[in-house]
Amino acid sequence: MKIDLKGRLTHKSERHSAGVSQQSGFPSPATHYREPSINLHQELIGNSDATFFIRVCGHSLSEFNIMDNDVLIVDRSVPPTSNLLAVVIRDGNFEIIRIPKEGMTESMIFWGAIIYTIHRAR
Amino acid sequence: MIALVDCNSFYASCEQVFRPDLIGRPVVVLSNNDGCIIAANKEAKALAHIPMYEPIFKIKQQLVDNDVTFFSSNYTLYAEMSQRVVNILHRFSPTVEVYSIDESFLDLGASRVQTYQACGQDLKQTIFRDTGLPVGVGIAPTRVLAKLANKMSKKLPEFDHVCVLQTEKDRLRALRWCSINDVWGIGKRHADRLRRIGVHTALDFTRLPLAWVRKEMTVVGERIWRELQGERATELIIDPRIKKGIGTAKSFGKKLKDIGLIEEACAYYVSEVAEVLRSQHSCASTLQISLTTNYHSNKDAQYSNSITITLKIPTDDTFVLISEATKALRAIFKPGYRYKKVGVNLLGIIPNDHLQGNLFEDFSMNSGSLSKTLDQLNVKYGKATVGSGTLGRRKKEWELIKEDRSPRYTTQWKELLTIKV
Predict the structure, then answer these.
(1) How far is B3 from chain A (nearest CA, A)?
(2) How many domains in chain B?
């Protein structure tokens, strides 16, 4: 048995749901057109069991478009390929880097890939 | 084949996922109210002179001297990490028995012979990759043998945390390796007795006549004997039966003399256990309240008592239970003592669809709807957002001390892991 789940999980689609009208007067003409509301988790998160949210504190990552107080969505199951933004451990501390062309260096341990940055528009 | 997957020093490992500076260093986790050590990682266990289960105030200096990092227990975090692991296990098998917070059995079915080792490796690597938690995997034809394989996977470095017992040779080697007191399900008393009659290993045990085992160790012993032979005598428990008792007993943050505060704490615990009761769609017919002073203190006068009351009709209603619990508590409370702990136990638990009304009591099916509304509100807006007025507002006065609790990294926006850049 070999199960490989590095990419997105496919979810069972939860789209159309027929129902009984909740209105007491004239039944809603929309009854058979109901769909679940937009759910950010569904769109942004591929493997929820491997996904962690991390807050960034400080201004030194603006070159990566990561600002003070942003929240990173980090997926541990995305493999560390070059050019990817990643959370790594160096000397026991967390760091955020762009993985170089040559790949990870030996002094670093990959913790997870940054797949989205939640940034508050100001 | 059955796999047993368990997380290595689970509580400490959960902490280390978010604290890489602690990897390779001794870490311990303390019980509720920081009473004693309940978990230690490999590095902390190697410091043999640190006694588990010793009151923490006696050994705090030792921990500091040995550079051991300690945490108050963070069950919110541990439960969430545990759920992630269980979700991942379901990718490997539809049949998963969650045995405890850090241990699950999987039915791997009858895959092809050479794939079990690969499957075990894949389980180990996927769980580590996705969650950061190291696990051990034991794979064997029965639960008891899987447990044994799991033990070998950790104790013998050659296995590197994945051990498959597949052939007869593997099985005999495992049985020879395992001492009788390490066999899953054989308690200390039986183990002592077996050793006296010359049974030292699991292999010796399987050579006893089954009739003797059945006579001396009942059907439980017989099942272990059969499972060690490779014959499946227990099945995975996928849908755990309704719990027979639900209880909680936690120490207060400080010793309490005031019955008002104890009543509040008691009501709070009742509302917690009632919520569990409702979540499994059952009612309790008996309520047990216990009250104790601090038996570790030699300065204080000691008193402890407990009371068991049978409810007129089984209920899952928080308000009925709180009112009964308060009456019970008043019956055993004696003024003048400094109390350390109140315990609440619900017993005689019956599934809702088996309820029988009492001929002389008003038995309204609607009685619990207020409690159900409470549950919904508390799920939506956070634990204990709404509750009975008895809960009061003085929780700070009796709440557990969790001074050294780590952030709830995975469930609270305000406590996310923070990286300074």
Answers:
(1) 13
(2) 2
The overall average pLDDT reported for chain A is 84
B216 lies in some domain: no
Which of A3, A66, A87 shows the shortest C-beta gap to B92? A3
**Nearest residue, CB atoms, B20 vs list A59, A89, A96:** A89
Q: Which tokens belong to A76?
A: 């541990």
Whole-number Å distance between alpha carbons of A15 and A36: 6
For A88-120, the pLDDT digits (tens) are 999 999 999 999 998 888 889 999 999 999 998
10-residue block means of pLDDT along chain B (421 residues)?
Answer: 96 97 93 78 84 76 88 91 95 90 90 80 97 97 96 94 95 96 91 94 96 91 94 75 73 84 90 88 89 79 86 88 92 90 87 64 56 76 67 66 83 94 90
Provide the residue type at A22 as one letter: Q
Residues B171 and B251 in one domain: no
Q: Are residues B146 and B274 in the same domain?
A: no
Strand segments (E) across B174-218? none
Q: Which residue of B has its CA nearest to A77?
A: B130
Q: Take residue B407 and report the two structure tokens written for it.
A: 């952030």
DSSP tag of B380? H
Q: Match 């008002």 to its residue by tokens.
A: B260
Per CB-CB distance under 8 Å, the chain A contacts of B137 are: none
Q: Do B261 and B373 share a domain, yes or no?
A: yes
Q: Edge-to-edge strand order for the sheet containing B339-351? A: B246-256, B339-351, B282-293, B304-315
User: What is the 8-class DSSP label of residue A26?
Assistant: S
**H-helix or E-strand spanning residue B283:** strand B282-293
Pair B152, B21 in one domain: yes
ipTM value of the model?
Answer: 0.81
Going across the sheet that includes B135-140, the strands are: B96-100, B103-107, B2-7, B135-140, B162-164
Q: Which residue of B has its CA nearest to A70?
A: B418
Interface test mutation site (partner A, options B1, B137, B419, max chain A beta carbons within 10 A): B419
- In terms of Cβ atoms closer than 10 Å to its own Cβ (0-12, 13-18, 19+), residue B316 is buried
What are the E-state strand segments in B238-384? 246-256, 282-293, 304-315, 339-351
